[in-house]
């Protein structure tokens, strides 16, 4: 068994979070092997199939390779390939195929904190996570999933409906399979409490932080000096929130914290446990729109061309969608003043003002109509 | 940014005790502290988060009427909440205006008024650790005196430092004779706002009379302030910029004569610049241009410009005259 | 040639919403370093704190003790790049001129320091915070020398070369001295514009990953091929082995036209640590290492007859450059072609000082040059007592004075007329300080806008998919101009399908090559290639037997179900040599000036531009508005300040380098003159990216003069200059 273990203390939870479902960000966790730390979020770029199973089911062991083999064979890139050897490369187990390699780390989740983060208690579970760290498909229960389901899950997001779609072609598409040997039967919370006691001695050390982002509990392992902005972009994979200055001077990093527009670059992530954080990725849902529907402010920005390069845009929209609930006057000049903390170097200000005024007018109409 | 220990506190006494240690900083909104830590200017090894405390003790974030007519602002109240408060807008227009003309909507949502008055100068040499700066590193020299100094102060300067105090709110509070409630390791005290900040003299690293561990808990606005007050801010951009010159004024005019006057200037002083000279020049005079100009001359009589900021003398005078004209109109 | 509209209504010209709008408003558009790669390491740049000298030693011991540090590159230990000539000091001289080797100190190939803030090292760590923590304890030992910082006292030199944008160093038409001798009225003034920085909202950033000897760079750039070529040359590998990817770029404005140092450093580091490396500059590091606009000192002399006809124009421009290379602000181009004067003389000089290398910045040359020329024309109008529009019409150039070529199209008269009418120029009382609104002094100002219409070679692949949808592929960039959108529109019209049946792909060097998105060439060049490729595709399908009225989908189905593809290369035609090709416009500004506090506000600007075909009214309007807002910044706010003693960039952030915020901008009323240009290129497009800023600063300065009677010849027009 490889010397891989989870690191980072975990605070006790009032209640275990429910398992993430499709569309949710995958809870992050840290893996440490011989002093080299990495974390789930660092695997971004290739999809991850995360398998949580009891420790006795150790996919890295010879007698269990067949089980994993089946799973791997279900990946599009490896469809006709067989697992032939298990290497000992550090820190991953390199699984060699005829033409490629797949990294297969097996992590021991001794204190159950990973299982806890994934809301898994006593049954094995499989999570298919896309290359951006979003859960796309889950399976729970004692019966193993059908391979075809995993293929379908993986291919469903391989072809993405974006202008660049055909550049992410299937040939480059290799999934990482991550086996978590979790102790699913012991009470995770007990172990967690012990770990906190042990970890709290190191000042400035990374610890587990739970952030409520877009309605989901995100578990990240962070040092105190990590800004909310970097936590979102670099640790949670939510790159919609932009960094334009890192000093509060441009507004590109604007998010909502408990509904108020806030600069995520000028605050530490740790200060926001227990608060509701909304980013551009979750704005539409926060307004109660469903499916593919945009927030009215997003629609208005498109209609009035309130952007060019788009880099300031998430910050503008987050700022605008909160500003309309602040007690500003009705004039264009009020909007301009209220939005002056959001710099747009492309100079899309006229469109931005028009977009906001339209949303405000529609909202006012809506109220009068009631 | 250096590594630090993050300590949330939910008890004032504990906060004060913990804050008394060396290399320790409180964090409220963080809009000054995080900014300066990222620049390497502030290097605390312990950061004490006052926000948990603020969530627990509502008085720290509240705006409340005191029985004697004063208005108490909790030190951890956000700039935006104070600015939009009906009582503040009605009775202390200059405070509301000073807040709304400062920073941006987002910064005002995060920043607290206690943090605001303790923000550090925007002098670019202070904010760049590769530069000489007596305020940051005593004895290292003053980059601004030798270099570019368009934005620096003309009042209260010393051979050591000519940095402006950047807060708008503080200028309004100085004009009002506000009081600052402080909780320190040895109990509570009240400091007149005009005595909170000190001019640089030989020790520009010392900016206030606060002692290690002191937590600002509230700021009281006095009663009996003339109803007509304003804060006028002149800056390079139309918004989201620090003052080149600003004036906080409150006038009580009856029968054409000025009965009482409060005057403070911003953007030009090394501390929020209350001007008793200007007030003396106004009280008892007819509220007209001549009196306003005389007040402006008096306020700037001691001004000592440097290479690039001579214009601030004239600009500050005109800003003050305009503010006085507006409140007496 | 015009676009075939026989099949359906044109989409070109329509104010179509951006096709990438949804991605941009949801945060799903992915910018350079945001690509999710496996096992990314984070890099932080070390920059110099002296302006001139050498790096003796970088003390890294303390930094290496920070957990997670993977490598620290310094001039001492950085790999020597095979493509950079050994021993090349980066100093001036013919040996330094190769683009890949000019800035060798900035890629750690030697220990020289040429400006304060120059890259001198790189830290790589497992997390950004660890890299920053290590950066905090780096100590550098320098052998410092006295820098040259004051452009006004440093020696002026003839430049070694002038970029083709700027023309020859010296241009002479007729005899300017004789022309001035014959003049009845003269104006003779010096105009200055300051150092400026582009400050796109997305800082320069890169994500570099090696696979064997193949390098992939996810890069924030306006020129994927230009970055590819430079980096390949430096590493001594074939260009095909460098793949540059930029699907979205968060603004560039010229600063991202080619490689600087961060791409190379990230690639070096990625090789060293055997992992992908992400390097995101800080905002401060955008001052120096990624270019800016140089300061210009422009001397303009105009001579005219009483009736306003110009007898002579002399315009000399001196701009600063760095000590690394000569880069000249091409501020004189418009002076050679804008007015019909028999005698014109222009000349460039350069001053080498210890600052970062200047580069192209939105309308390089025309933005600064029109400030001087169009301010001088306003001064001449006042000297003559003549309406500024009349003066310009009196000198209207019917052919290009520089070379006597006819214009491919020119609608400047229309621009003046339409602009004046929409603005209400007729209400203007010429005398300064005569118009008021309450306390505010009101001023009306005018200036001419112009920018060359360039077309460069470009290639495109057009592919028809079995479902009848089309995919158009060209290695261009989306920097905010609406490339995804307008290219989809062009192709849709050529194919005769609605734009939503077309997908346009861009931003990878594995795609057909197109020029960098600079100098307003993209719409014209890549647009022409897209148009030709889509046409060629349609013709191919027709020749394969497409029946009239038959849909592509049904044709493909019955002819075997295979995709059909063509790739074409478009090159500019011989017209380029036969015609002068320029966009023109007129900018009308209303300012309000507070007479006591010297506050300048700009409630409205009206523009009228003739830019050939407008591909998308919505995005073109945005382009012009953006350019105008840049002009507002240039006129009133922007100036990069350096310390006079040590050359440190003092206002290297977005609080003190002031770009306009929302409250600085009033209404900007944009008008386009309907213009059909049969010569400029296949689609009749002259480009709208840069012209929007030209003339704006002069228009504002002229309005400020009209309001106050104060002529400000030194930008920006700050409070102290009109107090
Ligand atoms: C881009 C930008 C533009 C700005 N423009 C303006 C402007 O135009 N005008 C203006 O006035 N301000 C401006 N500011 C400054 C801003 O208002 C201050 O940063 C803010 O008010 C500080 O409050 P805070 O709560 O965020 O303080 P923090 O950053 O949390 O704290 C600041 C300092 O005060 C100490 N502190 C905080 N609270 C207490 C307390 N209760 N007791 C004791 N010590 C305490 C901290 O230890 C720290 O040293 C600007 C800021 C930014 C980033
Ligand atoms: S003015 Fe003060 S803050 Fe600025 S450099 Fe001098 S000493 Fe430092
Ligand atoms: S990145 Fe936070 S304000 Fe600019
Ligand atoms: S859209 Fe480019 S900065 Fe605003």
The SS-based structural class of chain C is: alpha+beta
- CATH classification, class level of the domain at 406-454 and 577-722 in chain C: Alpha Beta
In this structure, how is the largest beta sheet of chain C organized? Answer: 7 strands, mixed
The number of helical elements of chain C comes to: 17
Q: Give the assembly state of these chains.
A: heterotrimer
Helix content percent band of chain B: 25-40%
CATH architecture of the domain at 228-328 in chain B: 2-Layer Sandwich
Tally of separate helices of chain B = 13
In terms of per-residue confidence, which ranges of chain C show pLDDT below 50 for 5 or more consecutive residues? 1-7, 86-101
The CATH H-level superfamily of the domain at 406-454 and 577-722 in chain C is Aldehyde oxidase/xanthine dehydrogenase, molybdopterin binding domain
- In the sheet with the most strands of chain B, the strands line up as 4-5-8-6-7
The Cα radius of gyration of chain C reads 26 Å
Distance, first to last CA of chain B: 51 Å
Q: What level of helicity do the residues of chain C show?
A: 10-25%
Which descriptor suits the 3D outline of chain C? globular
- Strand sequence of the main sheet of chain C, in spatial order? 3-5-1-12-9-10-11
- Number of beta-strand segments of chain B: 12
CATH superfamily of the domain at 228-328 in chain B: CO dehydrogenase flavoprotein, C-terminal domain
The value of Rg of chain B in angstroms is 19 Å
Mean pLDDT of chain C: 94
Task: Describe this entry's structure for a reader.
The complex is a heterotrimer of chains A (about 375), B (about 325) and C (about 725). Chain A is α+β, with helices and mostly antiparallel strands and about 375 residues long. Chain A contains 10 helices and 16 strands. Chain A is about 25% helix and about 20% strand. Chain A is globular and about 60 Å long. Chain B has about 325 residues and is of the alpha+beta class. Helices cover about 30% and strands about 20% of the residues of chain B. In chain B, the strands form 3 sheets. A 5-stranded antiparallel β-sheet of chain B has the order 4-5-8-6-7. A 4-stranded antiparallel β-sheet of chain B has the order 9-10-11-12, with helices on both faces. Chain B has a 3-stranded parallel β-sheet with strand order 1-3-2. The mean pLDDT of chain B is about 95. Among the domains of chain C are: about 20-30 and about 455-570, Aldehyde Oxidoreductase, domain 4 (2-Layer Sandwich), CATH 3.30.365.10; about 405-455 and about 575-720, Aldehyde Oxidoreductase, domain 4 (2-Layer Sandwich). In chain C, the strands form 5 sheets. A 7-stranded mixed β-sheet of chain C has the order 3-5-1-12-9-10-11, sandwiched between helices. A 5-stranded mixed β-sheet of chain C has the order 7-15-14-13-8. A 5-stranded mixed β-sheet of chain C has the order 16-17-22-23-24, with helices on both faces. The radius of gyration of chain C is 26 Å and the shape is globular. The chains are: A alpha+beta (about 375), B alpha+beta (about 325), C alpha+beta (about 725). Chains in contact: A-B, A-C, B-C. At the A-C interface, helix 5, helix 6, helix 7, helix 8 and helix 9 of A face helix 1, helix 3, strand 20 and helix 15 of C. Bound molecules: flavin-adenine dinucleotide (FAD), iron/sulfur cluster and FE2/S2 (inorganic) cluster (FES) (2 copies). Flavin-adenine dinucleotide binds near residues 32, 115, 116, 167 and 169 of chain B.
């Amino acid at each position: 068994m490889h010397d891989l273990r989870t690191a980072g203390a975990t605070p006790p939870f009032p209640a275990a979070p429910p398992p993430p479902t499709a569309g949710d960000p995958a809870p992050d966790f840290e893996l440490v092997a011989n002093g080299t730390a990495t974390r789930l979020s660092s695997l971004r770029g290739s999809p991850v199939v995360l398998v949580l199973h009891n420790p006795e089911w150790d996919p890295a062991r010879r007698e269990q390779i067949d089980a994993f083999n089946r799973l791997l064979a279900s990946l599009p890139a490896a469809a006709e390939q067989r697992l032939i050897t298990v290497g000992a490369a550090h820190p991953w187990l390199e699984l060699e195929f005829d033409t490629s390699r797949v990294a297969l780390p097996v992590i021991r989740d001794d204190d159950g904190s990973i299982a806890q983060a994934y809301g898994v208690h006593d049954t094995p579970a499989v999570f298919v996570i896309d290359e951006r760290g979003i859960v796309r498909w889950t399976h729970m229960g004692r019966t193993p999933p059908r391979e075809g389901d995993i293929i379908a899950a993986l291919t469903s997001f391989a072809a993405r409906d974006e202008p660049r779609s055909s550049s992410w072609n299937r040939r480059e598409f290799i999934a990482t399979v991550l086996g978590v040997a979790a102790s699913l039967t012991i009470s995770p919370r007990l172990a967690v409490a012990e770990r906190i006691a042990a970890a709290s001695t190191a000042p400035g050390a990374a610890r587990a932080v739970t952030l409520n982002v877009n309605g989901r509990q995100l578990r990240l392992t962070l040092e105190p000096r990590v800004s909310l902005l970097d936590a979102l972009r670099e640790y949670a994979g939510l790159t919609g929130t932009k960094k334009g200055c890192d000093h509060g001077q441009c507004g590109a990093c604007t998010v909502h914290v408990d509904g108020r527009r806030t600069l995520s670059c000028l605050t530490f992530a740790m200060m926001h446990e227990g608060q509701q954080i909304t980013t551009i990725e979750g704005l539409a849902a926060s307004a109660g729109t469903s499916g593919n529907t945009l927030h009215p402010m997003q629609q208005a920005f498109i209609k009035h061309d309130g952007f060019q390069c788009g880099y300031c845009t998430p910050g503008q929209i987050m700022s605008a969608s909160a500003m309309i609930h602040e007690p500003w006057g009705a004039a264009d000049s009020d909007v301009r003043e209220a939005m002056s903390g959001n710099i747009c170097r492309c100079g899309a200000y006229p469109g931005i003002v028009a977009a906001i005024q339209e949303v405000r007018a529609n909202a006012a109409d809506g109220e009068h109509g009631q | 940014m250096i590594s630090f220990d993050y300590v949330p506190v939910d008890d004032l006494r504990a906060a004060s005790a913990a804050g008394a240690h060396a290399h320790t900083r409180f964090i409220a909104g963080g809009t000054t502290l995080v900014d300066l830590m990222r620049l390497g200017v502030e290097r605390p090894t312990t950061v004490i988060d006052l926000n948990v405390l603020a969530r627990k003790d509502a008085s720290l974030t509240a705006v409340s009427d005191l029985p004697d007519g004063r208005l108490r602002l909790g030190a951890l109240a956000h700039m935006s909440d104070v600015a939009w408060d009906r009582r503040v807008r009605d009775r202390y227009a200059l405070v509301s205006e000073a807040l709304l003309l400062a920073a941006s909507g987002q910064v005002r949502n995060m920043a607290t008024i206690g943090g605001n008055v303790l923000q550090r100068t925007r002098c670019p040499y202070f904010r760049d650790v590769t530069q000489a700066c007596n305020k940051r590193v005593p004895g290292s020299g003053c980059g601004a005196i030798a270099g570019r100094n368009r934005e620096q102060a003309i009042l209260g300067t010393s051979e050591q430092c000519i940095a402006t105090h950047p807060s708008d709110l503080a200028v309004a509070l100085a004009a009002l004779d506000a009081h600052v409630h402080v909780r320190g390791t040895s109990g509570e005290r009240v400091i007149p706002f005009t005595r909170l900040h000190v001019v640089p003299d030989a020790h520009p690293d010392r900016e206030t009379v606060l002692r290690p561990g002191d937590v600002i808990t509230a700021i009281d606005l006095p009663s009996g302030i003339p109803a007509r007050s304003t804060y006028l801010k002149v800056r390079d951009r139309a918004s989201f910029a620090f003052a080149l010159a600003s004036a906080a004024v409150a006038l009580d005019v009856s029968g054409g004569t000025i009965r009482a006057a409060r005057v403070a200037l911003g953007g030009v002083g090394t501390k929020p610049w209350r001007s008793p000279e200007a007030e003396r020049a106004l009280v008892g005079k007819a509220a007209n241009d001549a009196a306003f100009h005389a007040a402006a001359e008096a306020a700037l009589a001691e001004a000592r410009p440097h290479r690039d900021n001579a214009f601030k003398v004239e600009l500050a005078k005109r800003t003050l005259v305009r503010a006085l004209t507006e409140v007496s109109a | 040639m015009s676009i075939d509209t026989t099949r359906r209504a044109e989409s070109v010209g329509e104010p179509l919403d951006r096709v990438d709008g949804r991605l941009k408003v949801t945060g799903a558009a992915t910018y350079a370093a945001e690509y999710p790669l496996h096992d990314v390491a984070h890099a932080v740049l070390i920059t110099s704190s002296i302006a001139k000298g050498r790096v003796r030693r970088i003390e890294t011991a303390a930094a290496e003790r920070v957990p997670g540090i993977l490598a620290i590159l310094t001039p001492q230990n950085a790999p020597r790049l095979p493509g950079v000539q050994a021993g090349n000091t980066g100093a001036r001289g013919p040996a330094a001129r190769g683009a890949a080797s000019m800035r060798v100190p900035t890629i750690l190939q030697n220990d020289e320091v040429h400006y304060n803030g120059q890259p001198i090292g790189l830290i790589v760590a497992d997390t950004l915070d660890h890299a920053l923590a290590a950066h905090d304890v780096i100590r550098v030992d320098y052998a410092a020398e006295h820098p040259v910082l004051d452009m006004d006292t440093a020696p002026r030199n003839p430049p070694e070369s002038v970029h083709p944008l700027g023309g020859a160093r010296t241009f002479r038409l007729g005899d300017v001295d004789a022309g001035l001798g014959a003049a009845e009225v003269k104006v003779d003034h010096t105009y200055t514009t300051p150092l400026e920085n582009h400050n796109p909202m997305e800082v320069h950033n890169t994500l570099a990953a090696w696979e064997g000897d193949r390098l992939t760079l996810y890069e924030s750039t306006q020129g994927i091929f230009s970055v590819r070529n430079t980096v390949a040359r430096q590493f001594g590998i074939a260009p095909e082995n460098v793949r540059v990817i930029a699907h979205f770029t968060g603004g560039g404005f010229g600063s991202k036209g080619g490689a600087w140092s961060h791409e190379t450093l990230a690639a070096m580091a990625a090789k060293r640590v055997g992992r992908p490396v992400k390097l995101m500059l800080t905002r401060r590091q955008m001052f120096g290492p990624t270019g800016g606009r140089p300061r210009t000192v422009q001397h303009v002399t105009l001579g005219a007859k009483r009736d306003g006809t110009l007898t002579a124009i002399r315009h000399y421009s001196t701009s600063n450059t760095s000590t690394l290379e000569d880069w000249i602000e091409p501020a004189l181009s418009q002076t050679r072609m804008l007015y019909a004067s028999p005698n014109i003389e222009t000349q460039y000089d350069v001053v080498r000082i210890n600052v970062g290398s200047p580069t192209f910045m939105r309308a390089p040359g025309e933005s600064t040059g029109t400030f001087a020329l169009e301010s001088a024309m306003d001064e001449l109008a006042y000297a003559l007592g003549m309406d500024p529009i009349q003066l310009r019409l009196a000198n209207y150039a019917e052919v290009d004075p520089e070379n006597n070529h006819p214009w491919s199209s020119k609608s400047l008269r229309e621009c003046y007329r339409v602009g004046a009418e929409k603005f209400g120029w007729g209400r203007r009382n010429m005398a300064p300080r005569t118009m008021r609104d309450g306390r505010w002094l009101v001023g009306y100002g005018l200036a001419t806008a112009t920018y060359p219409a360039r077309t460069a070679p470009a290639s495109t692949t057009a592919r028809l998919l079995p479902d009848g949808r089309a995919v158009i592929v060209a290695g261009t960039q989306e920097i905010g101009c609406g490339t995804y959108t307008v290219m989809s529109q062009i192709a849709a019209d050529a194919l005769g399908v609605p734009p939503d049946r077309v997908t346009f792909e861009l931003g990878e060097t594995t795609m057909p090559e197109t020029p960098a998105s600079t100098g307003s060439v993209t719409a014209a060049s890549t647009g022409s290639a897209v148009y030709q490729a889509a046409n060629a595709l349609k013709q191919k399908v027709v020749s394969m037997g497409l029946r009239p009225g038959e849909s592509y989908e049904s044709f493909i189905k019955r002819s075997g179900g295979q995709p059909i593809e063509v790739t074409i290369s478009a090159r500019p035609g011989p017209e380029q040599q036969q015609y002068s090709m320029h966009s023109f416009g007129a900018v009308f500004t209303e300012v309000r000036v507070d007479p006591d506090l010297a506050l300048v506000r700009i409630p409205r600007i009206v523009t009228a531009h003739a830019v050939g075909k407008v591909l998308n009214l919505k995005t073109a309007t945005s382009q012009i508005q953006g350019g105008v807002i840049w002009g507002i910044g240039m006129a009133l706010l922007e100036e990069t300040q350096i310390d006079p003693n040590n050359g440190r960039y003092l206002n290297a952030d977005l609080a003190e380098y002031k770009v306009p915020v929302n409250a600085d901008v009033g209404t900007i009323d944009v008008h386009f003159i309907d213009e059909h240009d049969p010569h400029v290129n296949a689609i009749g497009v002259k480009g709208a990216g840069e012209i929007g800023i030209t003339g704006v600063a002069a228009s504002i300065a002229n309005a400020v003069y009209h309001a106050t009677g104060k002529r400000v010849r030194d930008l920006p027009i700050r409070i102290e200059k009109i107090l």
